[in-house]
């Protein structure tokens, strides 16, 4: 099939950036910071969010920044964003609208998909979530034996697990009354270890699956049902299970009453779904009012993204800088480093959000790209990473841009813990930017009385090249509202980069092939003859597995 080929790398915007890269790559951040006004030029303060975004420690000057903004404009990000917010089916491979933004729309204005106002449906589900969580938290909803529910287990996978798990961990300071657990892995150890901690009479399961056919989720759900009914009887399912799904038939067949099913829609992708009924565990954990604050923080960022000029638009700038390093400096990874234990699951959440969205090789026209798209996203919280992988970031051969996320006010005031934590937050981005020259190393060693021979030995190893770029996101305090804003900032960054790379950020066909092959192999593991069509490696490994299971 013959397709039109858009030569992105031949556009004037790309060519101009390429020329600038050849000049700017020779400049050091030490030189750039001779400009005493640099921080003021390359930082943004959002008082309504209590957030400062500092991107001054990036290898850019005013000309590069201008060219990056010109690239974003030429890509048509604003026009495509407005199409997304208005309900157009911008996910063209699946013929779906993309409306996670409608889930947190606090304006009351209608949004239409196929002529229907979806905000009416969204509001109805939110009210149902509010009533359910209120009943649960007030002990009006009780288990089959009349005991109050004390523990919730969310059973889902992918976006039905990572989002609510991250948010519940991040907002646990605001939780009271209920404990929440998450089961996602089909490995039986996952659910068994959770069930060991629980009492059947006081446990509620939330089964999160749009189709109610996801193999990992339904396998774990069936195990949970057996655990409940084996002691409490079949009728107990109605009081100990609710569903987040659209498949009423399958939900009813499982034993869950249809009025205990919470709906979400095809216009909500899994990795963007924590704002929907998938967020029910969050609502039950922190209360509906706090969940609304979470939505409001994201909504404010939606307005910021849509209406702020690119030059002051935080997610657009984050996207443009990531594009700059990915496509011109050869940075294949990007580290997200939250200096908050509450955000320990945030990098894992972003892995799906970013890598499932922009890990693509096919462009708008259906052609294979000839440039890099989405990077590998990874990270760990706080000083843990400093005692693990920061060595590679500082002195390794890989070029790894980093985002540092920190908070001015801690939720827990314990001695001087927070000052020590944040001293590291500030020190690391400074060290990555400016490093330590060999002359500085030698002078420091001489001051401490190290011998000339040891100075010669040690100085190369103690030298830091620096010039490692970072963004610093400094937030006044971690609240439901600021968490919602932080998540939305990254969502819109991912969207913007997808447009810049000309890929569909909202499908995920790469997830499907392995799942399909697993369904072929499963009967073989249960006793059927191994298929001759497998390659010799897969066929042999299956036979070894089957032989081992017989022993």
CATH topology of the domain at 102-289: Rossmann fold
Unreliable parts: none
Sheet/helix structural class: alpha/beta
CATH superfamily of the domain at 102-289: Glucose-6-phosphate isomerase like protein, domain 1
> What is the CATH top level name of the domain at 102-289?
Alpha Beta
Q: Tell me, rounded to a whole number, the average pLDDT.
A: 96
User: Beta-strand percentage?
Assistant: 5-15%
Count of alpha and pi helical runs: 24
User: What would you call the shape?
Assistant: globular
Helix coverage percent of residues?
40-55%
Quick one: biggest sheet? 6 strands, mixed
Count all strands and give the number: 13
Instruction: State the strand order across the main sheet.
Output: 1-2-13-12-10-11
Computed over alpha carbons, the radius of gyration is 26 Å
Query: What is the rounded distance between the termini?
Result: 53 Å
CATH architecture of the domain at 102-289: 3-Layer(aba) Sandwich
């Amino acid at each position: 099939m013959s397709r039109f080929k858009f030569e992105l790398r031949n556009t004037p915007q790309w060519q101009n950036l390429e020329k600038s890269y050849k000049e700017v790559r020779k400049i050091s951040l030490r030189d750039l910071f001779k400009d005493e006004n640099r921080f003021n030029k390359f930082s943004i303060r959002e008082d309504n969010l209590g957030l400062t975004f500092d991107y001054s420690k990036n290898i850019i000057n005013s000309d590069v920044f201008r060219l990056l903004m010109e690239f974003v404009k030429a890509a048509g990000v604003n026009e495509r964003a407005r199409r997304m917010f208005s309900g157009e089916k911008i996910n063209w491979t699946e013929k779906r609208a993309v409306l996670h933004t409608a889930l947190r729309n606090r304006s009351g204005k209608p949004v239409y998909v196929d002529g229907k106002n979806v905000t009416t449906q969204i509001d109805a589900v939110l009210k149902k979530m509010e009533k359910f969580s209120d009943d649960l938290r007030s002990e009006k909803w009780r288990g089959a034996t009349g005991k109050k529910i004390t523990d919730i287990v969310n059973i889902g996978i992918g976006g039905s697990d990572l989002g609510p798990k991250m948010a519940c961990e991040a907002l646990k300071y605001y939780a009271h009354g209920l404990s929440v657990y998450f089961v996602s892995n089909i490995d039986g150890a996952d659910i068994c270890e959770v069930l060991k901690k629980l009492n059947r009479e006081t446990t509620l399961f939330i089964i999160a699956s749009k189709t109610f056919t996801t193999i990992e989720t339904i396998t774990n759900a069936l195990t949970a049902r057996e655990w409940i009914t084996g002691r409490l009887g079949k009728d107990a399912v109605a009081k100990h299970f609710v569903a987040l799904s659209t498949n009423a038939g399958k939900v009813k067949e499982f034993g869950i009453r249809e009025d205990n099913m919470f709906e979400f829609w095809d216009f909500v992708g899994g990795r963007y779904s924590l704002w929907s009924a998938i967020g029910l565990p969050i609502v039950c954990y922190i209360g509906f009012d706090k969940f609304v604050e979470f939505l409001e923080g994201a909504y404010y960022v939606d307005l910021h993204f849509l209406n702020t000029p690119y030059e002051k638009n935080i997610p657009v700038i984050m996207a443009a800088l990531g594009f700059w390093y990915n496509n011109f400096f050869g940075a294949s990874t990007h580290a997200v480093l939250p200096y908050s234990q509450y955000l320990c699951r945030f990098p894992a959440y972003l892995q799906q959000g970013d890598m499932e969205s922009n890990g693509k090789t096919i462009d708008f026209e259906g052609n294979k790209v000839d440039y890099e798209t989405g990077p590998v996203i990874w990270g760990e919280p706080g000083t843990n990473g400093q005692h693990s992988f920061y060595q590679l970031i500082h002195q390794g051969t890989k070029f790894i841009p980093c985002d540092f996320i920190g908070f001015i006010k801690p939720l827990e005031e314990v001695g001087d813990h927070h000052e020590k934590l944040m001293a590291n937050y500030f020190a690391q981005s400074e060290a990555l930017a400016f490093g330590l020259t060999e002359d500085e190393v030698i002078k420091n060693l001489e001051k401490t009385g190290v011998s000339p021979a040891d100075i010669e030995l040690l100085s190369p190893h103690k030298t830091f090249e620096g010039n490692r770029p970072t963004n610093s996101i400094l937030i006044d305090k971690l609240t439901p509202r600021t968490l919602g804003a932080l998540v939305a900032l990254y969502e819109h960054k991912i969207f913007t980069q997808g447009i810049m790379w000309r890929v569909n950020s909202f499908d995920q066909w790469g997830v499907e092939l392995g799942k399909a092959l697993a369904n072929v192999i499963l009967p073989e593991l249960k006793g059927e003859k191994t298929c001759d069509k497998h390659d010799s490696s897969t066929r042999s490994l299956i036979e070894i597995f089957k032989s081992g299971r017989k022993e």
